[in-house]
Amino acid sequence: MKPRFNDVATVRSGLKNVNYLADDGIAGVVFLADRLGKPVLIEGPAGTGKTQLAKSVAELTGARLIRLQCYEGLDESKALYEWNYKKQLLRIQADKNSDSWSEIHDDIFSSEFLLARPLLEAITSEEPVVLLIDEVDRVELETEALLLEILSEYQVSIPELGTITAKQIPLVFLTSNNTRELSEALKRRCLYLHVDYPDLEREKEIVLNKVPDISENLADQIARIVRSIRQLDLKKAPSVSETLDWARTLMLLGIETIDAQEAKETLHILLKYQTDIAKAAKELSVTK
Amino acid sequence: MPVLDLMSGFIVELRNAGLPVSLTENLDAMEAVKVIPIEDRDAFKYALGATLVKNNAHWKVFETIFEVYFSLRGPEYAITQDGQPDDFWREMQEQMDQVKGQGEGKGSGGGMDSLTPEEINAMLMRALMSGDQAMMRALAKQSVQRFAGMEPGRPVGGTYYLYRTLRNLDLENMLQKLMDANRESSQQDLTSLEERLEKDEFESRIEQFKQEVESEIRRRLVADRGAEAMAKTLRKPLPEDVEFMHASRDEMQSLKKALYPLTRKLAARLARKRRHGRKGPLDFRNTVRHSLSYGGVPADPKFRYPRPAKPELMVVADISGSVAAFARFTLMFVYAIQNQFSKVRSFVFIDGIDEVTKYFKSTEDIGEAINRVNTEADVVWVDGHSDYGHAFEVFWERYGRDINSKTTVLLLGDARNNYHAAQSWVVKEIAKRARHVYWLNPEPKSYWNTGDSIVGEYGAHTDGVFECRNLRQLEGFVENLT
Ligand SMILES: Nc1ncnc2c1ncn2[C@@H]1O[C@H](COP(=O)(O)OP(=O)(O)O)[C@@H](O)[C@H]1O
Ligand SMILES: [Mg+2]
Fold this sequence. Notes:
The complex is a heterodimer.
Chain A: H1 8-17, H2 24-36, E1 40-43, H3 50-61, E2 64-69, H4 76-79, E3 81-83, H5 85-94, H6 101-108, E4 114-116, H7 118-124, E5 129-134, H8 141-153, E6 155-158, E7 162-165, E8 171-176, H9 184-189, E9 191-194, H10 200-210, H11 216-230, H12 240-252, H13 260-270, H14 274-284
Parallel strand pairs in A: 1-8, 1-9, 2-5, 5-8
Antiparallel strand pairs in A: 3-4, 6-7
Helix pairs in contact in A: 1-2, 10-11, 10-12, 12-13, 13-14
Chain B: H1 3-16, H2 23-35, H3 41-52, H4 59-70, H5 87-100, H6 117-130, H7 133-147, H8 158-168, H9 174-185, H10 192-225, H11 227-234, H12 249-275, H13 284-291, E1 312-318, H14 324-336, E2 343-349, E3 353-355, H15 357-361, H16 366-376, H17 388-399, E4 407-412, H18 425-433, E5 436-441, H19 455-459, E6 465-467, H20 471-481
Parallel strand pairs in B: 1-2, 1-4, 4-5, 5-6
Antiparallel strand pairs in B: 2-3
The structure holds adenosine-5'-diphosphate and magnesium ion.
Adenosine-5'-diphosphate is lined by residues 19-21, 46-52, 175, 206, 210, 240-241, 244 of chain A.
């Protein structure tokens, strides 16, 4: 298959064109994923652009995004496929007397009675696809096993029907907020990308790109204050989405340069815990 | 050396350092280096990282080893007595001279030899002030060449050279100097917020410069000694393997950082386990759905899951000298997952004992609570040397009746009792009332029951004594506990 990107720099600039600010690590791993035909497991704190990366890569490559949102209790029938059992029952009842059981069996387990869920859908798609398996850490360890075949072979085995192999190798992204350790088996199959809070420059760029009409000066100040706050020992550091929320709030309030008072009054947008807010407020008003 | 040869040494070293690199991952890395040129060092590094490091806590170790094996090489990194200025430096000089104007007495082409340490220092200050990356890098290189005093074949570690270089640059006072200069040069007074932000910015630049110096030293050491020897001297335990009893300040920091993700994961795992612990009533819908594969016969019944009760926990910790760090981490750990228990009470002792539960109740900030435990708890009875026997006696007298069949008691310490009376009957009585009693010991097993350690005597009455030298072991224990 033809590679999607020429080099790492193209990935980076391409992503920038669709308003995603990547660093060398992010761009490098996306490039590699395409070249090696391997899925990417993205880990990192919430709100740092993991989900967005998959969406932006889809936009960049003009592929359709297929998303499997994981949750506790997600099973095969929601992730891979399900037999349309109501339809099957009807079929069985309709033909109770005429057909032999083996005939009925073959019939009801044909693709006509199959409901494709995101993973199967991604595999069978004719058009280019980016498959996003979002927040995979939320499913049980045992459920992870459902993913393994897709991730290594790009195929799905259906006992009653045989093996369905992908027509094209999709780019696959799995995200995890790190609430549990994923299995070794899953990690082995993936390239690993840890996305952390962006550095000052990148965060400023993100703010400039995502908040309409914001001035360079304000974006710079926001990024600096957020960096300082992240250095504190907090229960939960502000994420990029919180930085963006804060920037938008400041814009709404018509603030051009932030002073300590205004920072303090809007801290609850950046920080979620009362103890964190108190700590940051104290830090920001110190003289030395 | 060709890339592939470097790769095999590199991967061996990763494994030596404790990273679990599988065969598949090794092969993936080999594929990766085929599509990313080594000249693009950043992309190359991330490509190797993506294939070989699947746990962020291991990234630092990976980075160090990467630097050793794939650092820039070449004759310019040889350690020589008289450092020759290279072309880049000469160019830089010329530019500087032009900027400075001619009148300062330093003609172009003078090279670094003609610069006094004060002048280098002034240049560094200017570079840090303006955040000039290229200049900072060049200065790092030259400072090492000039100040580190590196000699070929000399068996000293990088820290020594780092120290020498930084001292010569007076980097300790740099932050203050930058702040002062900044205050002078700005038109109006800076608000305290602005000052704070400036300070953080300067700090980050200084840190960056330090790292440049460190890398430069490392590159030279690698050139001198070879990658393998160098990697060996730099080898450090992974955060989860750092011993509580011997952690340096830096290691403490990385331990603390590793603690919260660990507890978060553990909590999620435990919550899940609880939900799936036992079989409950039949799940009718689920059973019917699965029956279709059996032609409509409900051959594979599915069940709903009830929630088993959470245990009550009492932690009793020795917080004297050498085991203090262990007690601190265990308390942090326990309180970080306190939702997993129906109730947590904590007690600390040296030769006296005090309940500290209230400190954790009055704040959400575990770190702050731990600080109060260390400073406010009343734990000294006679001389401030561990006396397990006395502490246990008082514990039993005051709190013994609160222990019941739902309570799990954790006793923490090295059981070094300074030859006081053991009073191990207390542990026996606790064991009679409690659901479980466990002892966690931060010492290696081979030290147990040597000298004044009497962990065996106490342990005999418990449901088990566990070695808990590092986070890995602590996590393993807590997981089995709940
Ligand atoms: N590098 C980035 N470039 C552009 N926007 C970003 C970037 N990182 C985060 N964001 C923005 O931050 C928000 C949170 O991102 P999201 O992908 O939902 O986080 P995560 O999946 O890591 O929890 C989104 O609005 C996203 O657009
Ligand atoms: Mg997300």
